[in-house]
Amino acid sequence: MGIRTAVAGASGYAGGELLRLLAGHPEFDLVAATAHSQAGQPVAAVHPQLTGLDLVLGATEPAALADADLVFLALPHGQSAALAAALPDTVAVVDLGADHRLRDADAWTRYYGGAHAGAWTYGLPELPGARSAIASARRVANTGCYAVATTLALAPLVAAGAVRPDDVVVVAASGTSGAGRAAKAHLLGSEVMGDLTPYKVGAHQHVPEIKQATGATGLSFTPVLAPMPRGILATVTAMPTGDADPRAVLAAAYADEPFVHLLPEGVWPHTAATAGSNSCHLQATVDVDSGRVIVVGAIDNLGKGAAGQAVQNANLMVGLPEATGLSAFGVAP
Predict the structure, then answer these.
(1) Which domains occur in the chain, in start order?
(2) What does the alpha-carbon distance between residue 330 and residue 332 come to, in Å, rounded to a whole number?
(3) Structure pTM?
């Protein structure tokens, strides 16, 4: 028997992607999946792409999850902490929500509100020292989707002193699945198609997470809702501190990474190339007019931005090769 695995919040988009990845994982045995309003429904009735997965969604409560060795929490922000606290210490937990990402309680209150539940080990293996920390942890906070694309583009440049950390500008477009599965008027097909919409301008909740993960001290972040179901394209700009080649910095940082790919010079990332994968595609240049360093990163927000990243973290936590059950290659068309 493999590692007994459960998913709380399995009816959402990230939860469905987790179920898909876990169903094909060679070492994880999917033994339970829970939901709120969809409890009692067969998984295939909620996620038709998972027809053949013989599992019924249970109610989201500790008793439904406590017998698992490993639990993924794919719940709305603010709902993970209480459930995680009720699980036995012997259960490994990966939280896809924001509850345990931030070390700064004031930042949590400012951007999310309510009481701060405390910080867990931050789950982005590509950051320096992160792999060993994740491998020794029983509780890991998965990264935010925008934070993954931005952090992978920016963190090596800040760490190398190649760019100023106090003047970073990010504009990132995301597919509609990043807003969740709940019915909302502004996410209707007729509203989204043929339109680009900025939202939470100047006050997005991923700002403190990105600053914490990258070492940036001044960050302007503008998210944009794009008319596509999945994917994130983040354009990150910063002022250089010298004449370091940003491509060389990124190439050195990610030379041995299985899921981060610096594209050939002149080839720019696009979201479709990462769909269905756990990869991040990067490209960098220096603006000939302003002199600013520009890095563009593309991910699948449900892959490297959520479920794939969570499985990568879980693999490390249970002692498996981190790429187990994951693909670095996208699907097309």
Answers:
(1) 3-143+305-317 (3.40.50.720), 146-303 (3.30.360.10)
(2) 7
(3) 0.96
